[in-house]
Recover the amino acids of this structure.
């Protein structure tokens, strides 16, 4: 339960709910949406994928039917999705909801996505414009493989390691193309506001670290009880094991366990430990933001 009084939240602005994993962001978003007839935009890198329900802690189907959610269950696990997609899609959704005077809530734990939205990132054109460069890069990809090209890109522009996975071949090639076309690192071409946008109200949920870790450990156990292993087994029967979506926390470790890498107990402990480390990084990331109304949970 969240200790602050939610009736004082200014719903004329976009309410952005941040905080570490398992802190209760979705629960607060649902409560606010019910009170204000709001719609929710997911700022999660993996809830966009169909079939990845348990491991990404999606809200239940009845909740999705009751309260409109955006950027959930829109892609297959072998489709690519990144911060550029998130910013472009979110911009369209916000415009549409504002045209109907619908209150908007954004909720999620992917720090890069939230930062990009809050600081109005503008990215270089992701659509290829130089066919000669594109053709040469495609030939290199066939002859050399993606590993060499990814290393080449990230050696020059290390910041891209945070936003582009090696399995996202399309974006690796496109960013190499941007690099060649412009003679500049792609991240140097990215534009952003120096201050947080003024049409948001940011609510941050936090707690003592021991409580956060306790909630994370229990959430992982609950996911196993709900059928995470069966969910992952079903997914890898339908999609390639190297699909980008399977890099998600909990899925990667479960796939490794199914391949004989370790037993279930070791898998659970590994997911718990990695999730705790992820929560620590989330808090570090979110603490950089200004104008956050932090609230402790009980």
């Amino acid at each position: 339960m969240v200790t602050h009084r939610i009736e004082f939240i200014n719903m004329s602005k976009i309410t952005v709910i941040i905080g570490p994993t398992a802190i209760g962001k979705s629960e607060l978003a649902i409560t606010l949406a019910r009170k204000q007839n709001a719609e929710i935009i997911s700022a999660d890198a993996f809830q966009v994928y169909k079939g990845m329900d348990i491991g990404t802690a999606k809200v239940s189907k009845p909740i999705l039917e009751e309260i409109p959610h955006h950027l959930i269950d829109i892609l297959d696990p072998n489709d690519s999705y990144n911060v550029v997609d998130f910013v472009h899609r979110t911009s369209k959704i916000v415009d549409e909801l504002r045209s109907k005077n619908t209150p908007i809530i954004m909720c999620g734990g992917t720090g890069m996505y939230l930062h990009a939205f809050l600081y109005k990132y503008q990215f270089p054109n992701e659509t290829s414009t130089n066919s000669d460069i594109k053709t040469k890069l495609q030939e290199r990809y066939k002859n050399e493989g993606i590993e060499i090209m990814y290393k080449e890109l990230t050696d020059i522009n290390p910041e891209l390691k945070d936003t582009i996975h090696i399995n996202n071949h399309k974006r690796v090639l496109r960013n190499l193309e941007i690099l060649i076309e412009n003679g500049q690192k792609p991240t140097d071409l990215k534009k952003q506001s120096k201050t947080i946008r003024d049409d948001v109200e940011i609510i941050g949920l936090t707690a003592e670290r021991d409580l956060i870790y306790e909630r994370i450990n229990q959430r992982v156990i609950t996911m196993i009880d709900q059928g995470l292993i069966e969910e992952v087994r079903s997914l890898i029967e339908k999609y390639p094991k190297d699909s980008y979506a399977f890099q998600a926390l909990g899925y990667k470790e479960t796939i490794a366990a199914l391949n004989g890498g370790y037993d279930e107990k070791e898998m659970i402990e590994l997911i718990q430990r990695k999730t705790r480390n992820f929560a620590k990084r989330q808090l570090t990331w979110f603490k950089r933001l200004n104008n956050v109304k932090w609230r402790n949970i009980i």
Summary: The beta strands are 14-18, 39-42, 69-70, 104-107, 200-206, 292-296. The mean pLDDT is 91. The chain has twelve helices and six strands.
